[in-house]
Amino acid sequence: MLKSFQQFLECKSTEDIVMKTLFILNDAPYGSERTYNSLRLAGAIAKQEGNEVHLFMIGDAASAAHRNQKVPQGFYNVEVMTGILIRHGGKVGVCGTCMDARGLADSELAEGTHRSTLAELAEWTAWADKVLVF
């Protein structure tokens, strides 16, 4: 991460610049396109060289981390989209309190996601250059 404008001026190329982005998702995975669109953008950013992405699912978005989702053919699958983000180095945390409120056990979480806390969300917020809330 660049600590000063002087460091920015000393960069030889955009490859020297790392963008760290935190996505905070609030909505259920299906019913609106907010979670879908946030995962699309998170995946696109994660695929670009030098970018780091963390994604935190809170509230109704916690159900987006459910393993083995069954969706109609031709419909987007947020579990698959989350997996793409993880394969590109993204980290995905799921609010533990929100999981408990929805009856979602740790064993039911999609591969690569993990039970998280507001303390971790606070750490990720401090880590990020940009925080996008959906």
Blueprint (SSEs and pairs):
Blueprint lengths: L4 H6 L8 E7 L8 H14 L3 E7 L20 H10 L3 E5 H6 L11 E4 L1 H10 L2 E4 L1
Parallel strand pairs: 1-2, 1-5, 2-3, 3-4
Helix pairs in contact: 2-3
Helix content: 25-40%
Shape: globular
Briefly note the structural class of the backbone. Answer: alpha/beta
Q: Which CATH C-level class is it?
A: Alpha Beta
Low-confidence stretches: none
Structure in words:
This protein has a single domain, classed as 3-Layer(aba) Sandwich (Hypothetical Protein Ychn, Chain: A), CATH 3.40.1260. The protein has a five-stranded parallel sheet, sandwiched between helices. With about 130 residues, it is α/β, with parallel strands linked by helices. The chain has five helices and five strands, in the order H-E-H-E-H-E-H-E-H-E. Strand 1, helix 2 and strand 2 form a beta-alpha-beta unit. It is about 35% helix and about 20% strand.
